[in-house]
Amino acid sequence: MAETGLPNGWEVRHSNSKNLPYYFNEALKQSRWEPPAGTDTEKLKKYMAEHHSAGEIAQMAAGANGNPVQGKIRASHLLVKHKDSRRPSSWRENNITRTKEDAMGIILGHEQRIRAGQTSLGDLATSESDCSSARKMGDLGFFGKGDMQKEFEEAAFRLKPGDVSGVVETASGLHLIERLE
């Protein structure tokens, strides 16, 4: 297993069309957005934080940032899933077994670090979010009413640009949301 934590034959590549990292196996001629089975998620997490982290991702997001669409907002989030989440797996863990209470402890710790100014939501999302948007610092792009789960949407639309929500619970798990635009 390489420094990436991916199984032999797999590597991290960068999609020019989506401006995101993905996983590729030359021998199998196979590519995928989610890590393959057998990935050491802790190693992958460290690798992604070092090689696909904040500054680079911020530049990618800024380059893709078009004009705001009427009635839409742009937000990023950090998601912590638990065993009762709608899909209890992610790029970080194939099978999430933590309890909702454990997930709440984790996300409250993240919130505390963000509010204390130790890190930003986007920087933390790149390595800690259970959503594939982690590759883009948690950036979900522009969305309007009806595009997201009700609880998420209501919290996001209440925020002013630059504000970070408290913990928001949806069927997907527990979120911290930052309104970008």
TrEMBL record:
Gene Ontology CC annotations of this record: cytosol; nucleus
Entry keyword Transmembrane helix: no
GO BP annotations listed: positive regulation of transcription initiation by RNA polymerase II
Which controlled-vocabulary keywords does the entry list? Isomerase, Rotamase
| Residue span, PpiC domain | 70-181
Q: What is its EC number?
A: 5.2.1.8
Protein's organism? Calycina marina
One term of GO molecular function? peptidyl-prolyl cis-trans isomerase activity
Provide the protein name.
Peptidyl-prolyl cis-trans isomerase
